[in-house]
Amino acid sequence: MTYNPQDLGDLVPPIETIVSGGSSPWRICVENHGELYTMAETPVASWHGEPLQSPTGSEQTVLRWLSARGYDYAVGGLGIQLRVEVRVRSTTAGAAGDVKLYGGTATVTSAVVGSSFATHTLTATPAAGNEEWTLALAPSSGKVLEVCSMVAYWVAAAPGVRAYPSEWRQTLTANRLSNVPVHTELVGRLLNGPVLIARDRPVCVFSHLWPFDVSGATFAKYAAWAAWGTVNNTEPAIVARGRIPSSDVRPRPYQVDYFLRTSDGTPGTIRIGATEFPVTADVWGSFTVELGPSDVDITAQVDACGAGEWAYFETIQVWRMAP
Amino acid sequence: MSRPPQFDVSLDLLERPSSLEDYTAGDASIVRTIESRQHALACGWGTPPHVVTLYSTTSTGSWSRQFLLRVPPYCTRMRVAVLGWQAWGGGLVLSVGALPATEAFTTPIDAVPMVSYWDEGTAEPASRGVPSKCLQVLAAPAASWSTVVVSATQGAVFGQTLALAFYPVLEQAV
Questions:
Q1: A152 touches chain B (CB under 8 A)
Q2: Residue A3 forms part of a structural domain
Q3: Domain that residue A131 falls in
């Protein structure tokens, strides 16, 4: 059984009266309630761009991001998992190694074969309390792997009949039968179910990810603006601009998570619209900003660093917070 | 750039918990509210845009990229808007798998001034006449989220960075 929209042509179907438990519109409402818990696959992070390469024959962490902090996720064991789909290939034919996802209760791997990009799906159960995930390329000896695109999102198993930490609750089979009284608690459960799911799974509306590379070789191979960073910079500089698209018709709070990785602790700044937020280097940071119903620029800046030093934004994620 | 009207599935639908005290006895709006909230969540909670930023170190000539795109349930088309651009001339073609070539999305970069939006820092693509267009991403509606592979080809003299936003198109907007 899947979520069953009653009328795709209108968000407010033309139902004139509240009907009793056995009739179709009401029964569908009750059945959809549980389906939505599974269907809400909210985005967590994404990255796309010029293919990132691993070193020859040695494992390389290529992307790192944080996950949302929902109650149902944080408790663990409730069937909520992180799913990552990633396009990977080898630069040569044949078996070439693995793509790996770290951060769950166990490391998830998928074997990479061939020189054409193929989609690999990695699904991990979150470790209790963990919010940080990393994707790594682990080529075999003499091989090189490349990644060109990644999306990460939550998936949930069919819900059980229990009290969820998010306060969401499943409906009972008896609620769907004919001639069953429609009691107040059930109506409230149906009214608030989508709200509680949305509140527990914030949506990532913007993400910038770039690999950790202590050698600074990233900047030799890729343009600094692609990495949202700089090297040998002797004065403060804007290193990148992005755009956060409008995602609602009214002002709403957004949370920004970031990690500015540097060789010497150089701090930076993230500007969203006309507001600047100071950024501390080499530690996860976060701030909240309210955005209106229009697109807004996001600008990354780093302060001056010394000769031979470097600084770049490894991760920026912007979350639209739930109501 | 404001969202086009057909995307205004306001998050107000999911704004706050409700109780029966908000409704009068026999009020049909209770059922409507339940259905509306369920549908808003099923379609991706207000159909959030998916932002894709493509990078290339190719300073001259054309380049191609593949990227993954998540498609909400019951959605077959997505509106593509240009959020930012560091490119000179050329054109962009987006296509999804074996869908008919006539459905491919082409941005007429001829309409774009020969400057970088991000370098200027102020202009909005919509005000510069850059169109947003619809890209068919699935041949038929699916009852769950889908992941499709989008191929992007930039035929630019200088084609470096491109930021796109994908807005799901609700089927009633077709």
A1: no
A2: no
A3: 43-156
| A250 interface with B at CB cutoff 8 Å | yes
- Taking an 8 Å cut-off on Cβ atoms, the answer to whether B11 and A252 are in contact is yes
Residues A48, B67: C-beta atoms closer than 8 Å: yes
The residue among A252 and A249 whose pLDDT is bigger is: A252
Does A183 reside within a domain? yes
Q: Does B145 touch chain A (CB under 8 A)?
A: yes
Interface probe with A: pick from B6, B64, B68, B70, most Cβ of A within 10 Å: B68
> Same domain, yes or no, for A68 and A215?
no
**Domains of chain B, each with CATH number or no CATH:** 5-42 (no CATH), 50-173 (2.60.120)
Same domain? A55 vs A147: yes
Interchain pair B172, A9: CB under 8 A: yes
Inform me whether the C-beta atom of residue B28 falls under 8 Å from chain A C-beta atoms.
yes
* Whether residues A114 and A211 fall in one domain: no
On whether both A48 and A135 belong to a single domain, the answer is yes
Number of domains in chain A: 3
Q: Which residue of A has its CA nearest to B33?
A: A191
CB contact A24 to B (< 8 Å): no
Nearest-by-CA chain A residue for B57 = A223
Q: Identify whether residues A163 and A152 lie together within a single domain.
A: no
Tell whether A136 and A101 lie within a shared domain.
Answer: yes
What ipTM does the predicted assembly reach? 0.85
Answer whether residue A296 is part of any domain: yes
pLDDT digits (tens, 9 = 90+) for A205-224: 888 888 766 555 555 555 55
- What residues in A contact B84, CB-CB < 8 Å? 241-243
Minimum distance, in Å, between the CA of residue A82 and any CA atom of chain B: 15
On whether any CB of chain A is under 8 Å from the CB of B172, the answer is yes
Residues 282-301 of A with CB under 8 A from B: 293-295, 297
- pLDDT tens for B61-115 read 677 888 999 988 878 888 777 666 555 455 677 888 877 544 444 444 433 332 3
Looking at the fold, whether A116 and A151 belong to one and the same domain comes out as yes
- Indicate if A230 and A305 belong to the same structural domain: yes
Residue B6, token pair as written in the block = 């057909």
